[in-house]
Amino acid sequence: MSTWSETGPRSVDEHRAAVAALLAPTGVERVALTDASGRVLAEELAAAVSLPPFDNSAMDGYAVRAAEVAAAAADSPVELPVAADIPAGRTDVPPLAPGAAARIMTGAPVPDGADAIVPVERTDAGTARVRISAPADPGAHVRRAGEDAAAGQALLGAGTVLSAPQIGLAAACGRPDLAVRRRPHVLVLSTGSELVAPGEPLAPGQIYESNGTMLAVAVREAGATAELLSFVPDDVERFRAVLAEKMAAASPARPDLVLTSGGVSAGAYEVVKDALTGHGVEFGKVAMQPGGPQGCGTLQLDTASGRTGVAVATLPGNPVSALVSFEVFVRPALRAAVGHPDPDRPIVTARLSGDLSSPAGRRQFRRGILDAASGTVAEIGTPASHLIGALARADCLIDLPADTTAVAAGEPVTVWLLEV
Amino acid sequence: MSTWSETGPRSVDEHRAAVAALLAPTGVERVALTDASGRVLAEELAAAVSLPPFDNSAMDGYAVRAAEVAAAAADSPVELPVAADIPAGRTDVPPLAPGAAARIMTGAPVPDGADAIVPVERTDAGTARVRISAPADPGAHVRRAGEDAAAGQALLGAGTVLSAPQIGLAAACGRPDLAVRRRPHVLVLSTGSELVAPGEPLAPGQIYESNGTMLAVAVREAGATAELLSFVPDDVERFRAVLAEKMAAASPARPDLVLTSGGVSAGAYEVVKDALTGHGVEFGKVAMQPGGPQGCGTLQLDTASGRTGVAVATLPGNPVSALVSFEVFVRPALRAAVGHPDPDRPIVTARLSGDLSSPAGRRQFRRGILDAASGTVAEIGTPASHLIGALARADCLIDLPADTTAVAAGEPVTVWLLEV
To answer: How far apart are CA B222 and CA B327, in angstroms?
Structure first.
């Protein structure tokens, strides 16, 4: 089998597919409702009870037989004895005898025999006897059992992303927890002997480590969990030993994906490439900018528990390259692994506010600011892959196809929205 | 001063302003970068160091004097001694002597005296001597110190919502933490003696508690923290005692807002209204549907630590009314309190897929499903405020003005997007 580097650059779509294929769908776990926000439902939610569970009043008022108040009017009220008082939550509601009314509160069970509710505003609010000054249609202000959902009815499909309304619905059905897809666990490694932890003093030639923190945050924002290991020294044996140790861990500490940044280009000291080449991870070029040097595969290492494999994606070390690569390759793969219905960022078309040129043969992801009101997008910063300041002020990526060499102001371009 | 209920219904905008006015801007706290996702920056972020901090190489290759390789060509390479080897992170880089080259890796400091980088691909990759087969323009492949940001330059303004790129930028500047606005703390109370905890058996007349869980999740999704207290019995004294105890707590357990659902309509057993009336909380009608009965104010109670006040918003008890009221009144107030630049949901215009009628004098928020591709929106379910099943399948609210009584298919309506 020829290697990737021998067959020339991959297209963005080819590498997207390769990374996505590394991650199997995650398993199922049960979480309490209050922990379910943002998770993806793993199985259909059916109504365990009817919603509402019983006929109940939509108003504070009086339960009546509609026929008995048909003649009621302001100048000739119908007076009935109040045979019962039914607050919400009453579980021993007697049937309503003919010729009587029952005082009833919103949400309380409608007594057998009653078929309408007269709102309190249309009565004298009496407690022993009540004078009713308007008729009620049969069924008026009665919420029927099962009106929202019949018991057993499907309410939400597997793959639904859960937030407050869906969680409220599950609670209304009596479910204390829900089956959701397990979050993938990602081990984020940043490499480079020039890196210093933020907050420490910086010597000449050193820079602050930012990729690890940035990628760990991005992983969590994508719905996965992250363990961040920074400052693995540029030592191939040590690097493999750290990975083997993590791969031998039991779930949930065992990573579903190892995500590295840096150490993959053409230099003499490329710890990621040197450590993983020949162990199941392939390195090569993707026809994109930023983010040309990429790698991925299933790493095979001997661990304490035997030979084992783990998915690996290696991102380039420039911060803009790393984050754009994450957006293009890793975020959709992580979201697809939990069955998210929309793995990709929202994509819109906007008109360019100024001319752009782009190198032939490489798909470009430029940093932009979208003006949704006018439908235009402006580039921010330059194509250079180290300008993280511009990336941090961007709210979108401008996706220029590989065969595009120039786009004039006013022409439409594809935009990926990087909403928070 | 006349009370709200005497002056007639408030408009939606009046009540929005009243609820928002209850919450003062929250204070400032420092959080580690990995905890800053979704938070709002409280102060301007300035570059503590230049970005990049020093001139560095954009390529793996050789640092040279451009003038010394100006004549280099494939058929007549320039050969130079390799005077130094400069990996990334080297902190003791010697100046480059005239007539020499230095092997240099991406990100490594450019030595004094060098003014261009020749990529390794245009050399024989020599380590003692190197043959250079192409010229380099002055400045080629050199990233200048401060090119992204000069030391002291403003990078992100107060009010920026933080996610991976902004957090990466802060890390690149050497910041281990950031000053963000404190999340408001919300005490969520659901009331009602008919309520049973999900997972427990249901007697006739009882329903599962869903509002508390749903609202606690909605509060957290709005960027606040929530404490959920369910099943406060319908006992006015007990209700006030629970509130007084919570109000006497020290921050962060002390609520910035007490959020109730239920117990506010015209019935005979309205614990929220009965407990809070006369203590600074006003109740009345808002000209909207669902969600007509509302209340808010600053609750004044005698606590163990003296008389004290806390913001209260009381939502109606029907689950759809409760969540729509949260969206219209509470979510924007919580987000404004942390200085969020976009307190409201994204709002778009779409064409109705079918006719809708609406009662005069009440602003309606109907549940809808947006088809972004065709720009149309369809109602799901009915206007009835107990249909939580339909709410859970909706992805937007259709906002019909109070004076609208009918909208025909194809006409434009305002839509609030309830994205996850």
So the answer is: 10
> Which residue in the block uniquely carries the two structure tokens 């509130």?
B243
- Please indicate whether, in this complex, the C-beta atoms of A168 and B392 are within 8 angstroms of each other: yes
Sorting pLDDT into bands at 50, 70 and 90, what band is B165?
Answer: very high
Distance from CA of A169 to the nearest CA of B (A): 6
In this prediction, residue B265 carries a pLDDT of: 65
* Same domain, yes or no: B167 and B192: no
Mean predicted lDDT score pLDDT of chain A: 93
pLDDT of residue B301: 86
Which of residues B308, B337, B366 is at a domain's end?
B337
- Any CB–CB contact under 8 A between B289 and chain A? no
Closest chain B residue by Cα to residue A49: B202
CATH of the domain at B46: 3.90.105.10
Which of the four pLDDT bands, split at 50, 70 and 90, describes residue B266? low
In-domain check, residue A342:
no
pLDDT tens, position by position, A110-120: 999 999 999 99
Whether residue A310 is found in the same domain as residue A216: yes
Per-residue DSSP letters for A232-269? E-S-HHHHHHHHHHHHTSPTTTS-SEEEEES--SSSS-
Mark whether B105 and B223 lie in a shared domain.
Answer: no
- Beta-carbon separation of A36 and B217 below 8 A: yes
Output helix, strand, coil percentages for chain A, rounded to the nearest 5.
20, 35, 45
Considering the domain architecture, whether residues A282 and A162 belong to the same structural domain is answered as no
Chain B residue with minimum CA distance to A420: B163
Q: Which domain holds residue A375?
A: 347-417
CB contact under 8 A, A108 and B175: no
Rg (CA), chain B: 32
Q: Calculate how close chain B gets to A36, using CA atoms only, in Å.
A: 9
Residues from chain B that touch A418, judged by Cβ atoms under 8 A, are 163, 165
Residue whose tokens read 């480059």: B96
Task: Say yes or no: A36 and A173 in one domain.
Answer: yes
Q: What ipTM was predicted for this assembly? A: 0.93
How do beta strands B363-371 and B288-289 pair? Answer: parallel
- Which residues of chain A neighbour B388 with C-beta distances below 8 Å? 51, 148, 165, 168-169, 172
Give the rounded percent of residues in chain B with a pLDDT score beyond 70.
98
Contact with chain B for residue A53, Cβ under 8 A: yes
Percent of chain A scoring above 90 in pLDDT: 79
Indicate if B101 and B123 belong to the same structural domain.
yes
A175/B199 CB distance under 8 A:
yes
* Contact residues on chain B for A148, CB-CB shorter than 8 A: 386-390
**Does A418 contact chain B (CB < 8 Å)?**
yes
Other C-beta atoms closer than 10 Å to the C-beta of A228 total 17
User: Does B66 reside within a domain?
Assistant: yes
Contact A388 B172 (CB under 8 A): yes
Question: Phi and psi (nearest 5°) for A94?
Answer: -75, 155
Any idea which residue has 């140790």 for tokens?
A245
CB contact under 8 A, B386 and A420: no
In terms of Cα–Cα distance, which of B129, B107, B103 is closest to B118?
B103
pLDDT at A191: 84
**What residues are paired with A379 via a beta bridge?**
A368
**Domain-located, residue B342:** no
The answer, yes or no, to whether residue B370 has pLDDT greater than 70, is: yes
| Shortest distance, CA B184 to any CA of chain A (angstroms) | 18
Is the pLDDT at B1 greater than 60? The verdict is no
Residues B187 and B168 in one domain: no
Are B174 and B236 members of one domain?
no
Q: Summarize pLDDT for A323-351 with one digit per residue, the tens.
A: 999 999 999 999 999 999 999 999 999 99
Res. A1: pLDDT tops 60: no
Give backbone dihedrals phi and psi of B22, rounded to 5 degrees, phi first. Answer: -70, -25
Angle at B197 between CA B196 and CA B198, to 5 degrees: 115
Mean pLDDT throughout B145-169?
Answer: 95
Residue ending a domain, choose from B337, B367, B401: B337
- Structurally, how many domains does chain B consist of? 4
Residue B76 domain flag: yes
Contact B174 A394 (CB under 8 A): no
